[in-house]
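User: Hi! I have a protein structure encoded as tokens and I'd like to know what sequence might fold into it. I'm fairly new to this, so please keep things simple.
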């Protein structure tokens, strides 16, 4: 029986064209992260312009998560017959359309529709990303290539929020999203030119096959750990601007600097985790949420002191950026025989947790206080530690013991 085209062993040799394709994927990641979480830095003016509460506007992050969940589960079965290059370029087109619609949105309903389109791109791209990287580069280069892709994540986390906050004060929140449109066009062209043809697998996968991975004990525990970890992180992160404005009474310039510090910390967080993941992966999967929970509570304690808040945010940002790198590495080891189906399941779990974490944080903010939002996020992270604290739960059967 011939080997499926999607097999990780069917990879071309690594050359400049290959790394150009990886670079195009990194830029797409930066665009997705920037677009998905830009409302975090623009929450207050968006809510005022659309005549709704900050809690309701924060659900713009949650709605993209809902559609990302659905797409991540369906992308492998629905797109299984298509060249992966065509699929990724098509998803980039949908992202471009969503950015234009967000910039034009006259009401919260139109904004939510545009965010739903963005969610389709997020779910589809992330579900396929690890598997595509595994096909682009040799096995010994996968970790390095994933590190390059996640550099896009770190770059967007570092600069999207502070730049969005700063530019929002100059050109308005709609102008910020219009500014992303030419970058999305450049990324679309780069993906089209750089990605090689990646024919579909001879094996067709269904949604049942994707969800069937949950029958594996290590996968079931991992997905629960993922949901609690990301849910706790985004319960807090989505409402970071209201927290800083309420506790620290910061102005727009101070807010931009604080968010910049949080974001820049993502670079050492990303690279440090990439270097440590192969050796300390299972320790990182429980240690990172534990430390992030502690830093979330510290933020509440020092939120009235600007310099202390800045330091706490730097540590918080480094820890937060490290988490997706650790779980992406787990995917390449824990479900190495089913990278696309596993990727779809992992993205579904992450996006579901972003959706529910954002919804929980918004509800706590609207009905209790911003302090309750941060405490809720810290509580979810502590629960994640309870799930991921035993390495044997997360290791594939052949590696257990």
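Assistant: Happy to help. Inverse folding works backwards from shape to sequence: for each of the 401 positions I chose a residue that suits the local structure. Here it is:
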């Amino acid at each position: 029986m011939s080997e499926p085209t999607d097999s990780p062993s069917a990879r071309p040799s690594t050359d400049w064209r290959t790394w150009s394709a990886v670079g195009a994927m990194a830029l797409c990641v930066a665009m997705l992260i920037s677009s998905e979480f830009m409302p975090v830095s623009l929450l207050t003016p968006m809510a005022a312009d659309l005549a709704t509460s900050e809690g309701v506007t924060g659900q713009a992050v949650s709605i993209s998560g809902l559609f990302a969940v659905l797409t991540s589960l369906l992308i492998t079965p629905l797109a299984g017959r298509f060249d992966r290059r065509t699929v990724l370029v098509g998803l980039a087109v949908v992202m471009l359309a969503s950015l234009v619609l967000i910039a034009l949105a006259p009401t919260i309903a139109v904004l939510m529709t545009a965010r739903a389109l963005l969610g389709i791109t997020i779910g589809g791209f992330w579900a396929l990303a690890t598997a595509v990287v595994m096909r682009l580069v040799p096995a010994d280069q996968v970790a390095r290539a994933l590190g390059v892709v996640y550099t896009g994540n770190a770059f967007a986390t570092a600069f999207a929020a502070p730049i969005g906050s700063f530019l929002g004060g100059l050109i308005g929140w709609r102008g910020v999203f219009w500014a992303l449109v030419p970058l999305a066009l450049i990324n679309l062209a780069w993906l089209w030119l750089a990605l090689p043809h990646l024919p579909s697998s001879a094996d067709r996968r269904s949604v049942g096959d994707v969800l069937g991975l949950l029958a594996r004990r290590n996968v079931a525990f991992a997905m629960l750990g993922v949901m609690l970890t990301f849910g706790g992180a985004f319960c807090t992160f989505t409402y970071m601007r209201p927290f800083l404005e309420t506790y620290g009474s910061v102005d727009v310039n101070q807010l931009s600097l604080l968010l910049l510090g949080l974001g820049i910390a993502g670079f050492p967080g990303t690279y440090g985790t990439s270097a440590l993941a192969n050796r300390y992966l299972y320790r990182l999967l429980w240690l990172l949420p534990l430390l992030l929970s502690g830093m979330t509570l510290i933020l509440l304690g020092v939120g009235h002191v600007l310099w202390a808040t800045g330091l706490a945010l730097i540590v918080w940002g480094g820890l937060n950026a490290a988490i997706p790198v650790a779980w992406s590495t787990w995917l390449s080891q824990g479900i190495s025989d089913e990278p696309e189906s596993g990727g779809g399941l992992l993205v579904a779990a992450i996006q579901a947790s972003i959706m529910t974490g954002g919804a929980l944080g918004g509800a706590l903010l609207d009905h209790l206080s911003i302090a309750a939002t941060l405490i809720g996020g810290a509580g979810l992270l502590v629960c994640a530690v309870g799930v991921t604290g035993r390495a044997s739960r997360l290791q594939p059967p052949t590696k257990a013991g």
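A useful reference point when you look it over: The two ends are 33 Å apart (CA to CA). Feel free to ask if any position seems puzzling.
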